[in-house]
UniProtKB/TrEMBL annotation:
HNH nuclease domain boundaries: 145-196
Pfam family, one: HNH_2
UniProt GO MF annotations: endonuclease activity
Record protein name field: Putative restriction endonuclease
Keyword annotations from UniProtKB, A to Z: Endonuclease, Hydrolase, Nuclease
Originating species: Rheinheimera pacifica
Alphabetical list of InterPro entries matching this protein: HNH_nuc
């Protein structure tokens, strides 16, 4: 195992794991940490320590009294800022680092005209970014809908607060995401529900007089209830405000 300083490639893999794993699984016995430690040429304990150092840079972790470790390097701090400033580019960099370490080429060698190749590469990058966004958001909420508590991963959606088409810069920012059931994701997208400044569910009064028992039970009954907050990647106040102002169906 290497004992020298962390390379950028190794650190990118660590940041990728940080996005996907719950804080409570940052330990050297975690099979995924063992697997990736072997991949990048580090010990499981070193990788687990790296994740805890990254956690010390995350306000969502430190604001709850959990401090992680205090050994974050200047390179870690610079990469944290790089990630915050451009989630799309950083998610691609993390995916490429993993692929290179797995000796799998990033899929740029695609047969066809150059414009088709460019199109295919763009599609691959979008898929990679979307997968990172989903993994990061669902991991932050411990694979549960923040409104209902539903924990079946097949029925969970990493829902955008500000829609994909409205804000290109924050499409892949996990702070622009909520873990929702497919039903609540649809209601949120349609503006039938929103989240207030105190992280409570608000159901639009336009939809409450339905004489629909299922709607009353599955959606309207959550009005006024607090959502379960994530352990990292808190939903940003400015994104929630946008949803309330531009998407929510006001009375």
């Amino acid at each position: 195992m290497a004992s020298s300083g962390w390379t950028r490639q190794q650190s990118l893999v660590a940041f990728s794991l940080y996005g996907r794993l719950p804080f409570g699984r940052f330990h050297m016995r975690n099979p995924e940490i063992i697997q990736y430690a072997n991949l990048i040429g580090r010990t499981p304990s070193a990788l687990a320590m790296k994740l805890s150092n990254i956690a010390s840079l995350d306000p969502a972790i430190t604001s709850t009294g959990r401090s992680g470790l205090s050994g974050a390097s200047s390179a870690d701090k610079a990469m944290w800022q790089e990630m915050q400033q451009d989630w799309a580019a950083f998610s691609i960099a993390m995916a490429q680092a993993e692929q290179e370490l797995c000796t799998t080429s990033f899929p740029t060698a695609i047969d066809g005209p150059s414009n088709l190749i460019t199109s295919k590469i763009a599609e691959v990058k979008v898929r990679i970014g979307q997968q990172f966004f989903r993994d990061a958001v669902l991991s932050a909420y411990n694979q549960r809908c923040c409104i209902s508590g539903l924990a079946n991963p097949k029925l969970l959606v990493a829902s955008h607060i500000v829609p994909w088409h409205e804000d290109e810069h924050n499409r892949l920012n996990p702070h622009n995401g909520l873990a929702l059931s497919a039903l609540h994701d649809k209601a949120f997208d349609l503006g039938m529900i929103t989240i207030d400044e105190d992280y409570r569910v608000v159901v639009s009064s336009q939809n409450t007089d339905t004489n629909d028992l299922f709607f009353d039970t599955a959606i309207a009954s959550f009005h006024g209830r607090p959502i379960v907050l994530p352990e990292k990647f808190y939903p940003a106040a400015k994104f929630l405000a946008f949803h309330r102002e531009h998407i929510f169906q006001q009375a």
